[in-house]
Write a structure and sequence with these properties.
The complex is a heterodimer of chains A (about 290) and B (about 280). In chain A, about 50% of the residues lie in helices and about 15% in strands. In chain A, strands 3-2-4-1-5-6-7-8 form an eight-stranded mixed β-sheet, sandwiched between helices. In chain A, helix 2 runs antiparallel to helix 3, helix 3 packs across helix 5 and helix 5 crosses helix 12. Chain A is elongated and about 70 Å long. The mean pLDDT of chain A is about 90. Chain B is α/β, with parallel strands linked by helices. Classes of the chains: A alpha/beta (about 290), B alpha/beta (about 280). Chains A and B meet through helix 2, helix 7 and helix 10 of A and helix 1, helix 5 and helix 8 of B. Bound molecules: guanosine-5'-triphosphate (2 copies) and magnesium ion (2 copies).
């Protein structure tokens, strides 16, 4: 299902019988503008539109009697391929203890996402343990404890202990209680904060997680590329969660993150409540980005 | 050399990329480049460094929005802080409180976010850290009623400044925008001169969606100023330029970290220098 912007590009092309290279170039410029306005990083846009232009200049489009339709199909396919090309199931095992770590910039929605994942996986039969390993934000522990309590899901916390001590303590408790899914909340941090990125690496080394989720805000602009690249470089996260998708941001950051890391977006946050978590749909995201 | 012919398409294209990568947005970036070409012609600019400085000067011009401060502020001076989720409202309030306390003002913080887990406790900690008074009810209480209580308490305790923290809310959620509108009405009914400031907090990492945020919040409440946070990251906060141009709203403060002192006055040349130094 195509969006308004796509219709506009399509209709402009449809006016022509067969397409010239100029027609294609103009349509590609339209797509470029649409993606930039949707917050896709300009480097990702250049790469994407170059690929589209190359395919669009092929015989298929130039000799087609419905070239407009062909062009739109190419764009949509390229986009959906990029969005969903890396899809893979989560590496969580049925009969043992699994560990996931959530990381990302300040305010991206990690703590909320931890509670959402806990509920999601409990519904699938897991026994989650939430871990309040953000030892620096004022009332971060309170926040996770309140969320866990409302869901009836245990939260491991140890006020006054350092982050790594909390992680070790949590793993220990998880093992003795038979938790099947340890979900570790971490403090928001800048990708350029060497000390905090170092701490994050240490958390991952200690936790040996099965999945590391990079949590990103859907309204992030051009900077998404820099942040994702750096986080990936430091901790090789295995999945992303795109939050606040219930907003009206086009979400181009998703394309940037996917393009620059090759790591799949596994979930999207669609609200503030703990049940507001959905599995990522590449097709839907592609339409949304194109506006 | 010296006419517009001395700079080729690649030069302008590279500048345009730099503008776009700073989140200035496609349309404004194009306008800036057009303005730059005009200025290069007018001033017969011949070298790349000079052209670059001319572009920065153009950007600074975009950001100049003036609004006079009160000479004799009423008491309590009421600041309502709003914005979408996770942008840094609560932390910014702590920083502003600290700054005001440093100037000898008495400050009260009102916990009007009664929705999010841990929100009241988070603000209470900032009140403690800054030696500010604190007023709250309980999780799930009616937000407007806490705002009312805070107004009454601020007057009763004769505080200089009352800062109200509100829940993050996405601007496309009609019920949440109705709620903040109701909170504003309750404040106004209680004290006609209040609120004296309505600050919208915007995250510097936000892309073009910031335009929609400002549009809606401004439409519903009438924003008096912006705070741009998280400029200590690598995001350039370029969307501030389109915001200044479109809404003529002053940027009052910028957030440059998570600490109590990490708040600065907005300064246009400094902002642009940090963006394109
Ligand atoms: N509307 C909406 N709000 C969300 C979503 N996810 C998180 N939030 C809100 O975003 C704000 C920030 O969420 P947190 O979970 O505290 O973010 P965080 O990444 O843990 O923040 P730090 O720990 O400070 O880095 C809160 O107001 C959440 O309720 C979402 O999918 N939709
Ligand atoms: N690096 C950096 N982090 C900031 C800045 N301002 C706030 N933060 C962090 O951003 C996160 C969110 O801040 P909050 O003050 O809770 O944001 P909020 O807008 O009140 O969030 P909600 O009430 O959930 O909507 C916290 O981790 C803060 O420490 C800033 O200027 N720089
Ligand atoms: Mg958190
Ligand atoms: Mg808050």
């Amino acid at each position: 299902e195509l969006s308004h912007r796509f219709d506009a590009i399509f209709n402009r092309l449809r006016g022509h019988g067969k397409l010239s290279e100029d027609n294609i170039a103009e349509a590609v410029r339209d797509v470029k503008r649409a993606l930039l306005e949707a917050d896709v990083n300009y480097r990702v846009v250049k790469k994407f539109t170059a690929a589209v232009q190359e395919k669009a200049l092929g015989a298929e489009v130039l000799q087609s009697i419905t070239p407009g339709q062909q062009f739109v199909k190419i764009v949509h396919n390229e986009l959906t391929q990029l969005m969903g090309g890396n899809e893979r199931p989560l590496k969580l095992h049925a009969n043992r203890m699994n560990v996931v770590v959530l990381a990302g910039l300040q305010g991206s929605g990690k703590t909320t996402a931890c509670a959402k994942l806990a509920l999601y996986f409990r519904k699938q039969g897991h026994q989650p343990l939430l871990v309040a390993a953000d030892t620096q934000r004022p009332a971060a522990i309170d926040q996770l404890e309140t969320l866990g309590k409302a869901l009836g899901i245990p939260v491991y916390a140890d006020r006054g202990k350092k982050t790594l001590q909390v992680v070790e303590g949590a793993l220990s408790r998880a093992r003795s209680e038979g938790s099947s899914l340890v979900i570790i909340d971490t403090a928001g941090r800048l990708h350029i904060d060497i000390e905090m990125m170092g701490e994050l690496k240490e958390i991952c080394n200690a936790a040996r997680p099965d999945e590391i989720f990079f949590v990103a805000d859907a309204m992030t602009g051009q900077d998404a590329v820099n942040v994702a690249e750096q986080f990936y470089h430091e901790i090789h996260f295995t999945g992303s969660i795109l939050t606040k998708m219930d907003g009206d941001a086009r979400g181009g950051a998703a394309l940037s993150i996917l393009d620059v890391t090759g790591v799949p977006i596994q979930f999207v946050g669609v609200g503030e409540k703990s049940d507001a978590l959905e599995v990522f749909h590449p097709e839907r995201m592609a339409s949304r980005i194109l506006g | 050399l010296g006419s517009e012919g001395s700079f080729d398409d690649d030069f302008y294209s590279a500048l345009e990329d730099a503008l776009i990568s700073a989140d200035i947005g496609v349309e404004l970036s194009t306008n800036i480049i057009d303005g730059l070409k005009e200025r290069i012609r007018r001033d017969k600019i011949a070298t790349a460094p000079e052209a670059y400085e001319a572009m920065k000067a153009l950007l600074v011009e975009q950001l100049q929005v003036h609004r006079l401060d009160e000479d004799f502020p009423p008491k309590p001076w009421v600041i309502l802080v709003v914005g979408v989720n996770g942008v840094g409202k609560t932390t910014t309030i702590g920083k502003i409180a600290h700054e005001l306390r440093g100037k000898g003002k008495s400050v009260m913080l009102g916990a009007v976010d009664t929705f999010r887990a841990g929100a009241i406790e988070q603000l209470r900690i900032w009140a403690e850290r800054t030696g500010s008074e604190f007023i709250a009810q309980h999780d799930g209480a009616d937000a407007a009623s806490v705002a009312f209580d805070a107004m009454e308490a601020a007057r009763a305790r004769n505080v200089d400044v009352l800062i109200l923290d509100t829940a993050g809310r996405l601007h496309n959620k009609i019920n949440l925008m109705n709620e903040i509108e109701k909170i504003l009405r309750v404040i106004r009914r209680n004290t006609p001169h209040a609120p004296n400031e309505i600050l919208l907090v915007v995250d510097a990492t936000t892309g073009q969606n910031a335009m929609k945020q400002v549009a809606v919040f401004n439409d519903v409440l009438g924003i008096t100023g912006l705070v741009i946070t998280k400029l200590d990251g690598t995001a350039k906060g370029g969307v501030a330029l389109a915001l200044a141009k479109t809404y003529r709203l002053p940027i009052k403060k910028i957030g440059v970290g998570e600490g109590i002192d990490d708040l600065q006055d907005f300064n246009a040349p400094t902002y642009i220098e940090a963006m394109f130094g």
